[in-house]
Amino acid sequence: MPTIEEEIARIEEELKKTQYNKATEHHVGKLKAKLAKLQKAKEERRRGGGGTGFFIKKGVYPSVALIGPPSVGKSSLLNAITNAESRVGDFDFTTLSIVPGIMEYNKMKFRILDLPGIIEGAGSGRGRGREVISVLRNVDLVAIVLDPFKFNYEYIINEIRNMGIRLNEEPPKISIIKKDRGGLNIMTTGKVQVDTDLFTIIAREFGLINADIIIRENMDSERFIDGLMGNRVYLKAIFILNKADTPEFKDAYEYLKSRGIDPIPVSAANHENLESLKKAIAENTSMIRVYLKKEYENEPDEEPMAIREGSTVEDVCRMLHKDFVERFKFATVKGKSVKFPNQRVGLDHVLADGDILTIYIKKG
Ligand SMILES: Nc1nc2c(ncn2[C@@H]2O[C@H](COP(=O)(O)OP(=O)(O)OP(=O)(O)O)[C@@H](O)[C@H]2O)c(=O)[nH]1
Ligand SMILES: [Mg+2]
Fold it and tell me: Are residues 148 and 245 in the same domain?
């Protein structure tokens, strides 16, 4: 029996050879579905095997990953916009692990992660490519850093895509209801039109025999497969073009513009345009504001705490004091995340924008 890798290689080869047209589109769709399934199996086996991947936890601040080719100045940028000191070198692969730093903008804090450079073939394991890219699964924003000497961004996007991460794309609007019988029904809403025959073949390939699949947007087979896979990650991405101080900058900038990419021009070396970069980071990450009110006070603090969307009471406790989680009694919240004012909540309560939060702590 062929191994998963051999099977993947065989299908990839066949896809390359097959001309895409009306006559072959069903065959191609089926091949793509098979490929997606095999890649999932490979991924699961890899996870099961443990591995030494980099791992970051979602924290209370939005996190932003600086990713790009080696030597474009990712570490220099981190050092310029945060309190961190990451090693800078004029040779490739200066950075070998994740280096975090905290950036402040308008009294909000952001966690910026400097990553090792990635080269073509990263997704198939060249360098530590796979581990580097898998870090993106837990960040809020991807910042693709390029420079006038390395601005071939396509391979980076492809490597990221091949690892199941979708940039600047909404999740496909599709719901799957599995049933005991009744066969496979592919339904669309409103004016949505899809190739139902093709989607039926693909869904069968995924083992869906009895199910209602409701599709709420016009989509191609690739997005349909993404919807069936369920393990895709959807992230915002921005582009940064560094080294604006060099004579080669202009051509690279114009090239990217001509390809529909609107990079933020910066110079880490000369600290040029870093405010615009910080602003772009703030605008592309979802923050909420929470007002803390002390137990014995009537009014909350004037300055809100800016934290990432989805943060819990526990996240806030950890931010305030290292013992707060251990000494936590309960908290009360007034605002959109609760049903009535001053409702009691626990550590796992998810906060909403504008909430007023009071934390009750056992006296130590
Ligand atoms: N002219 C110019 N050079 C820069 C700028 N930013 C960084 N450099 C230089 O580019 C080289 C690489 O910088 P790093 O910050 O180490 O690049 P990196 O992307 O972190 O590299 P890896 O960690 O190896 O992936 C160093 O020689 C820096 O001094 C810039 O804005 N302008
Ligand atoms: Mg570096």
Answer: yes
260: Cβ contacts below 8 Å, ≥ 6 apart: none
pTM of this prediction exceeds 0.85: no
Domain hosting residue 107, numbered range: 63-169+233-283
**Is the C-beta atom of 79 inside 6 A of ligand 1?**
no
Q: What is the CATH number of the domain that holds 143?
A: 3.40.50.300
One domain, residues 134 and 180: no
Are the CB atoms for 65 and 77 separated by under 8 Å? no
Task: Mark whether 294 and 351 lie in a shared domain.
Answer: yes
The pLDDT confidence band at residue 50, using thresholds 50, 70 and 90, is: very low
pLDDT of residue 51: 47
Tens digits of residue pLDDT in 247-291: 999 999 999 999 999 999 999 999 999 999 999 999 999 888 899
Looking at the domain assignment, is residue 206 inside a domain? yes
- Which CATH number covers residue 332? 3.10.20.30
Q: Are 95 and 116 in contact (CB under 8 A)?
A: yes
**34, amino acid identity:** K
Number of domains in the chain: 3
Q: pLDDT band at 320, cuts 50/70/90? A: confident
- Ligand 2 centroid – CA 64 distance (Å): 15
* CA–centroid distance, residue 85 to ligand 1 (Å): 13
Query: Is the CB of residue 75 below 6 angstroms from any atom belonging to ligand 1?
Result: yes
For residue 354 and ligand 1, the question of a CB distance below 6 A is answered with: no
Q: Which amino acid is at 175?
A: S
- List beta partners, residue 177: 212
Paired sense of beta strands 287-292 and 356-361, if any? parallel
Same domain, 82 and 180: no
